[in-house]
Amino acid sequence: AQVNAVVVSPDGLLIATGSADFTVKIWDAASGGEVACVRGHDFLKECICRQGHREPSCPRVGHSGIVQAVAFSSDSRTVASGGIDGVVMTWDAKTGSLIRSVDVGSKVFSVAMSRDFGRDQKVLAFAMGLHERLGKASEVLTLDAPLARRVAHF
Fold first, then answer.
1. Which of 15, 41, 33 lies closest to 5 in space, CA to CA?
2. What are the start-end ranges of the H helices in 15-149?
3. Residue 36 phi/psi, 5° resolution?
């Protein structure tokens, strides 16, 4: 599948990729081996979801659209991802387990975490909008409440 985003962890041990097949993969930088693969809702026979609709009982927890962006936390323990499904997700970098999923309501083209994100799990920034407007509609969220709270819009 086409890889749309790639990032090396700050400690240099891991690589994360986001792809057109709705997956987020985490790789061992030294060996090139796959550490974790989060498969999205691809609406194929392996996924019980119907196109454009996630079924609550579906065992898949990943994106339901192309993954456009990935980022690591400064401690290399967390990966953030965003995609055309309008969802920003955070993952455990060692296991691929979902930590948090926030529907931001628009396609996401980039993600970034605050320097302290690995410690406080709070501030996550992302850019969203149409290709021709990339960077003109961005958000900074704090994830310290049950629901994400917007702290800046630019």
1. 15
2. 117-120
3. -155, 150
